[in-house]
Write a structure and sequence with these properties.
Shape: elongated
Number of strands: 6
Number of helices: 0
Order of helices and strands: EEEEEE
Radius of gyration: 12 Å
Helix content: under 10%
Strand content: 15-25%
Strand order of the largest sheet: 1-3
Number of domains: 1
Length: 69
């Protein structure tokens, strides 16, 4: 990875066939080579059953509440 680059790690807010409530996922216990993860790097709005918890960036544990729906 290039320091300072604007990476998007996951974009789950795309057109999906079927009921959004049926989609589910969990990002947990991951390490990302990034100084500070931002909400735009995990686009999960509109996916009510996808959660981001217990993940780390280069600075330490990430508060993923901004990523959760």
């Amino acid at each position: 990875m290039t320091a300072g680059a604007a990476y998007v790690y996951a974009d789950l807010n795309q057109g999906v066939a079927g009921d959004l409530a049926a989609n589910s996922g969990l990002f947990a216990e991951n390490w990302f080579a990034d100084d500070a993860l931002i909400a735009g790097q995990f686009v999960i709005a509109g996916q009510p059953n996808v959660f981001f918890t217990g993940n780390y960036d280069a600075a330490g544990l990430v508060n993923g509440s901004a990523f959760n729906n």
